[in-house]
Design a protein that fits this description.
Blueprint (H helix, E strand, L loop, with lengths): L1 H4 L4 E4 L6 E4 L1 H78 L7 H5 L23 H34 L1 H5 L12 E5 L2 E4 L6 E4 L2 E5 L4 E3 L4 E8 L5 E8 L2 E11 L6 E2 L4 E5 L9 E8 L2 E3 L11
Antiparallel strand pairs: 1-2, 3-6, 4-5, 6-13, 7-12, 8-9, 8-11, 9-10, 10-12, 10-13, 13-14
Helix pairs in contact: 2-4
Length: 312
């Protein structure tokens, strides 16, 4: 650029006295070069400033996004754990209602147990839509909050319910321990093969009323007394094969038929959950199973109304 300017002269004329002054070409070159560099500097500064701000902003946004993706993973993990807790609470609620049935306490309504969880919809204007891709999902946060609220309230409700159950049970503990309340065989080792009510008799192929529940199980599977009581009968009894009757008092009697082995004797005291015999195939039976009946004042009742412990 300096070589180009050397071909030209810069003359400055004073308009008042028409005097003229020649500026050295080297000075002119330096002047033009300085002006050019200053303009280039300011243009570069403006460009780099915008680009730099943009770069910083994008980097900050990406960092926030990465942080919130990690937060989303934590929320998902906690949500999974909370779901497991809710499942346990639901199982406890079933057991709670079973105990309340046993103690003849009013059941807690499902709507009360749900405790109105759900909440109201939020105003869409409050969600900062332009940044929602950076944040954990609103639905996840809402659900997490609702579930935590549900767990907290369920614990309080369960505490009140169990206190009521405990108080009622302590008033007449003997009555309730003598009340049939569990299945006579473990649910893990047996399967319900025939229920109380009308069925097709496997021997006559005719419709006949079945007065108890049948539990299919391997021969030798443990059979338990379903309540405290005194063994009324323990003998081989016709089509029932090896047969046990237990008198629980208060008008209740339970029956156990087709046993492989009888472990208790007539007149013996037994407690709920005590081993009394083994599943067998004796008497009029097509396969190893336990025939179980519940009687009240000599009238058979549906045994399924007396399975209060869901763990068995």
């Amino acid at each position: 650029m300096i070589n180009i300017l050397k071909k030209y002269k810069l003359i400055v004329i004073n308009k008042d006295n028409t005097s003229a002054k020649e500026i050295n070409s080297l000075k002119a070159s330096v002047l033009f070069l300085s002006i050019f560099l200053m303009m280039l500097f300011f243009l570069s500064l403006i460009f780099l400033s915008k680009d730099f701000n943009s770069l910083i902003t994008m980097k900050s946004i990406q960092n926030h996004k990465n942080d919130n993706e990690k937060l989303q993973v934590i929320i998902d993990t906690q949500s999974s754990k909370i779901s497991s807790l809710i499942e346990e609470i639901n199982n406890l609620n079933i057991r709670d209602n079973n105990l309340r049935k046993l103690l003849k306490l009013p059941l807690i309504n499902d709507d009360i147990r749900k405790l109105g969880v759900g909440g109201s919809a939020k105003d869409e204007n409050e969600k900062f839509n332009q940044f929602d891709y950076l944040l954990p999902k609103d639905n996840d946060l809402d659900l997490l909050s609702d579930n935590l609220y549900f767990i907290h309230r369920s614990i309080n409700l369960g505490d009140l319910s169990y206190s009521e159950i405990e108080n009622k049970a302590n008033l007449n503990i003997s009555y309730f321990t003598h009340f049939p309340a569990i299945k006579p065989v473990s649910k893990d080792e047996s399967k319900m093969s025939s229920c109380y009510g009308y069925r097709i008799d496997p021997f006559s192929n005719k419709k006949k009323f079945h007065e108890g529940d049948d539990f299919s199980a391997k021969r030798g599977t443990e059979v338990m007394s379903t309540a405290d009581g005194i063994v009324k009968t323990s003998k081989f009894y016709g089509s029932f094969g090896n047969y046990i009757e237990i008198d629980h008092g208060n008008g209740y009697v339970t029956v156990y038929g087709h046993l492989h082995k009888r472990i208790v004797k007539k007149g013996q005291k037994v407690e709920r959950g005590q081993l009394i015999g083994q599943v067998g195939n004796t008497g009029r039976s097509t396969a190893p199973h336990l025939h179980y009946e519940v009687k009240y004042k000599n009238k058979t009742l549906n045994p399924s109304d007396f399975y209060f412990d869901i763990s068995l």
